[in-house]
Amino acid sequence: MNERLVFNSIMAALLIGGVATGCDGDGGTDGGTIVLDDADIDTGTGDDDSGTEPDTGVSTGMCTLPARVGAPGGACRSGTACLPGNDCLEEGGGPVMTRNVDGTNGAPIMVTFNPGGVCSPACETDADCDDCTSCVGASAGDPGTCASNCTPTATDNGMCRDGYACGFGGTCGLACQSDDFCKIQDVIDFDGDGTLDGYLIDPDSPQACDTTTGRCGHPGTAGAVAGDNCENDWDCEANGICITGEGWPGGYCARLGCEYPGFECDGAGETCDVGNFGISICTQGCQVGAEDASAQAGVGGGGAGCPTEFGCFWNGTGAADANPNGSCIPAEYNDIAAPNIGTRCANSGDCYSPLGRGRCLFADEEEGLAGYCVVSGCVGMEVRQVMPGVAVDVDICPETALCVNFGSADAPNPLCVQNCDTGDDCPTGFACANLLSGGGGLCWPNCFEADDCPGSEMCVTQGTTRACDADGPDNMPNTDDDEICECTGRGAAPPDSGVMDTDAGAGDAGV
Predict the structure, then answer these.
(1) Cβ proximity of 368 and 385 under 8 Å
(2) Alpha-carbon distance 209 to 70, whole Å?
(3) Selection from 372, 370, 257, 375 nearest residue 311 by Cα
(4) What is the DSSP annotation of 244-268?
(5) Can you list the positions of beta strands (E) in 377-434?
């Protein structure tokens, strides 16, 4: 299957200009960060949203069979039971209808799903799995499955079971099963009943199935490097991907998996980014903070070595004096000139943009919900640092705010956010939630008690006017009977929510 399909479904969560509301561990944040919700329903090749376990006798310790029999990721053929708490995702498949990109009907493709069957509990996080597996495919309201951990290689399937390939997310997913399988561009609803029941195929795609690794690949275009414009994956370097969609004008060539031996970046000016996407990826390199003051903010800004309107974000490993040490990523350069962290916003265009890093956290444009402005890429409590050892002459995180890592230690996503002592420190509709391990609060979409909310706002059950019971009838936090609570001011963003917006008027109070 086309890797672009996999990547574009992830890129839908690259939240430049809006962030989904939530209290999950990754904060649902943006700023050039891919949120790996794995909500796509593609079949996988090289993907990390489906899969099973390592080959028997190859991996070590408790992750080898027979220890895996019936455990998460273990096979469950007919007559083989899964351990308590696990369901058997049975093997299935057959011919799947196709339609060519030119609108004509194509020949059916034979596909086998869950080869050999897979034992798995329903999971929401890795904590629901065991040490040999990770939770993949979980999204809001829909559980995922526990897929076996693996390490991608360029020469085999990463010790995954037969029928599975090791994806660059480090879990086993369904292997490609034919060259036609690799030409899949999308999943479509043939009969309009709301069920996805067929594939969109590009018969002219050069994608082919490598039966040794189980991944799809293509020969690419000679001389192509990360950052080149593209329409298709094969416009890029060999086995590259083309990132397209909103925020990626003209398409953007990249390549996955550069943290693993055999997949290193080797094109001119490329860098291996491990800090901005939640997955390692070869991108167009740049030098963080090296642009002159005229390019640091305002329309037409850009990072040193990047196209206009692309910022230079630390790649997660580069040293302060290295060039490149960052990735060129679409950024939010606008004409807002003053810091407005903590201001209500409809999208990132309402937020201050030092080095293109203004972001609208927690906004949901589809639901019409306001967010508040933050700045991405801060470093600890250093007011002007944009990566360790590199400072600029504009404030990234002023002392009145707080730099919080919404990512992980391996893939940090630091954002400068509005901290608070009481609800009155937060914008309308946002609670002062006691979320920091060292004490203190952050302005957050969800309240826990009435005192969390600003002014005279009440803490109500989400979508109602009824007083909320955050701990539920059992009076215990983080149990199944807890209610989701929000302040009564949490509602639609005004049409012009940014106080510094160029079309600001009487309604642009921003609070």
Answers:
(1) no
(2) 30
(3) 375
(4) -STT-TT-EEEEE-TTSTT----ST
(5) 385-387, 390-391, 402-405, 414-417, 419-420, 431-433
The whole-model pTM stands at 0.77
* Burial readout 364-398 (b: 16 or more C-beta within 10 A, e: otherwise): beeeebbbbbbbbbbbeebbbbbbeebebebbbbe
Q: Are strands 92-100 and 198-201 parallel, antiparallel or unpaired?
A: parallel
Question: What are the pLDDT digits (tens) for 87-120?
Answer: 999 999 999 999 999 999 999 999 999 999 999 9
Domain map (residue ranges) of the chain: 34-217, 344-487
Count CA atoms within 13 Å of residue 508 on its CB side: 12
Answer left, alpha or beta for residue 389, where phi above 0 means left and psi between -120 and 50 means alpha: left
Question: Per the structure block, which two tokens stand in for 344?
Answer: 């209500």
pLDDT tens digits for 431-483? 999 888 777 799 999 998 888 999 999 999 988 888 988 877 787 776 677 88
Q: Are 179 and 129 in contact (CB under 8 A)?
A: no
Distance CA 96, CA 149 (A): 29
197: amino acid identity, one letter = D
Strand partners, 256: 281
User: Which amino acid type is present at position 376?
Assistant: S
